[in-house]
Amino acid sequence: MLSIFDQGRAPACPEPFNLASYVLQQAKARADYPALLIPSLEGLTSWSYAEVERAVRGLATGLLETGFKPGDILLMRLGNTVDFPLVFLAAIAVGIVPVPTSSQLTRPEVERIIAELNPAGIVRDPSVASGAHPREILQQDLKALQACPPADYLLSAPDQMAYIVYTSGTGGTPRAVAHAHRAIWARRMMIRDWYDLGPKDRLLHAGAFNWTFTLGTGLMDPLSVGATAIIPAPDVPLDQLPRVMAETKATIFAAVPGVYRKILKADHLPDLPHLRHGLCAGEKLSAEVQQGWQARTSTQLFEAFGMSECSTFISSAPHRPSEAGALGMPQEGRRIAILAEDGPAPLEQPGIIAVHRSDPGLMLGYLHAPEATQSRFQGDWFLTGDRGVMHENGQITYLGRNDDMMNAGGFRVSPMEVEKAFASLDGIKEFAASEVEVKPGVSIIVGFFTGREDVTEVDLQAFADRELAEYKRPKAYLRLAEFPTNPNGKLLRRALPQLFQPTERKD
């Protein structure tokens, strides 16, 4: 038998449709119910469903009155505050296309995005790095815009572009990924076959508002079913998250595996009687963390696999846990295959994990890059670039990347993007970046280089601080006499991690 999972079809997305309207569909019925809780060291801020929708629809009117129109691109340069999701949903509500970006991006990185997208304007926090643009909305002006009369939702075809996110491409150039309104409709499969999420749940997400993992799993999905989303304020340290879970009576906790690993270092964890289970994605979950969490909290962790181009589509869930070492199963309604060079591989044979082009959560494509989009397809299958094997019961075991993409705390980073930046640094002859496992389940990005003797690690760190977002920066550097190469002189990238000796490794 071939490695194809094809059990059921996702219901067709309604027409006409609007992503923001779908997310806030519970606002009227649950007007006074807490939609959003923001715990901080100073106390707890609560937003009801009515307050969230009022702010979103008021902001939507404000954006139109500021001069934006449907189809315009709005670049978001905001920090980790509630303004981020409010602006995101407000723009989509009236057909403006928001581009959420990490506040960690440097000014040169933002300027490259502005040059590529030519946005109609930027909404920004003055403390967050940005680029020059003639039309700006400053964060301090957003509250006044929320007071505008509520806008009507602009309904359109489900395939209409709703938002753009950036992901690092294997060629080293970050790609603008265009997503349709139907992307939120596809997430219903995640709610059932990963989250097990219902209106009585309180989902606490450890990430920042301006991370797309938080935006989807931590906020939009809970709101769409009438649940409560809990997003800690920036002043809450990771070691305080168990206390926040207990005090807010969180029933589900979501984070990258690294957060669970840090929490488990605590000598004591509070009782968590309301917690049903935890969710994790972004990087492979180790058996050590999974078993440690269950031993300490008596709850299970359920893992999911996905990417910026299609969110998550393989997962474990309470009603269908993964087998030892496996990611889980494709969510019901998805069509997933393991591809060999000539098509779907036989069961139990490795290949590339692929998503059928009919998946409602799959991107529209890379913006302004049809050739790059087409290069990701093999026939009707979108190639993820990750290797796996499908077993007879539908479970999929992850076998790692098929290319050299690195994983930095849940963010995928192309080594060529890092290398392209360092190529402009005076005194560097050769530079290569690679992911290095420093201990089981813990990896960092390491920069390997050759060059003048007076180029120090301090110089390299200072350069990275100016040019690269924090999650893209190497955490350690190693000077080499020469790079490992094949007989043709090509860099043997996968030989680099072995050159980083244990005495040089940093956590």
Question: What is the fourth-level CATH superfamily of the domain at 406-504?
Answer: ANL, C-terminal domain
Assess the beta-strand content as a share of residues: 25-35%
Trace the largest sheet across and list its strands: 3-2-11-10-12-13-14-15-16
Low-confidence stretches: none
Please give the largest β-sheet. 9 strands, mixed
Number of helices: 14
Layout of secondary structure:
Blueprint: E1 4-6, H1 19-23, E2 34-40, E3 43-48, H2 49-65, E4 73-77, H3 83-93, E5 97-100, H4 107-117, E6 121-124, E7 136-138, H5 142-146, E8 161-168, E9 174-180, H6 183-186, H7 188-195, E10 202-205, H8 212-224, E11 228-230, H9 241-248, E12 252-255, H10 257-263, E13 277-280, H11 287-297, E14 300-307, E15 311-315, E16 329-330, E17 335-340, E18 343-344, E19 351-356, E20 365-366, H12 370-374, E21 377-378, E22 381-390, E23 396-401, E24 406-408, E25 411-413, H13 415-422, E26 428-439, E27 442-451, H14 457-467, E28 476-479
Helix pairs in contact: 2-3
